[in-house]
Amino acid sequence: MATNARRVGIATVICAALTIFTLNPALADDDRSKPKPSAKSEFKNVKEKFNFEKDAYKAAMMAREEAREKINEIFKATIKKATADSKIALASATTAEQKLVIMNTLKNARTAAVAIRDSALAALGSLPTPPVEPKKDEKRRTLAP
Predict the structure, then answer these.
(1) Structure pTM?
(2) Which of 50, 98, 118, 120 could form a disulfide with 93 if both were Cys (CB 3.0 to 4.6 A apart)?
(3) Is the pLDDT of residue 51 over 80?
């Protein structure tokens, strides 16, 4: 009976030692002096970043729209001037050859104005990419079968 008691005692000491050794690293990792960021504060930071990016996107879109409108105004004014000049020239033209030259000049002016407008619009670059709204992670419960 003494050997059985001895074996039980040794087994108890071994179990206690193993328990202490496995708890020790877990206690060392638990550092309560550093505050852990909560999910709410992380989401709040992401949301603030999104709002900043959204404002920057709106400003970039407004600036692009203003530049596009300015390009279109210049284009319209150029076309209007070329058309008015051709009407004045046609009024004073007497031969069919003169009228043909005037109409070809108008056509070339329109083609040049379109090319200039297209290159100016291409210089604006592509549209700015809109920011992606962050989604809150929802903990979903699954039903066990």
Answers:
(1) 0.61
(2) 98
(3) yes
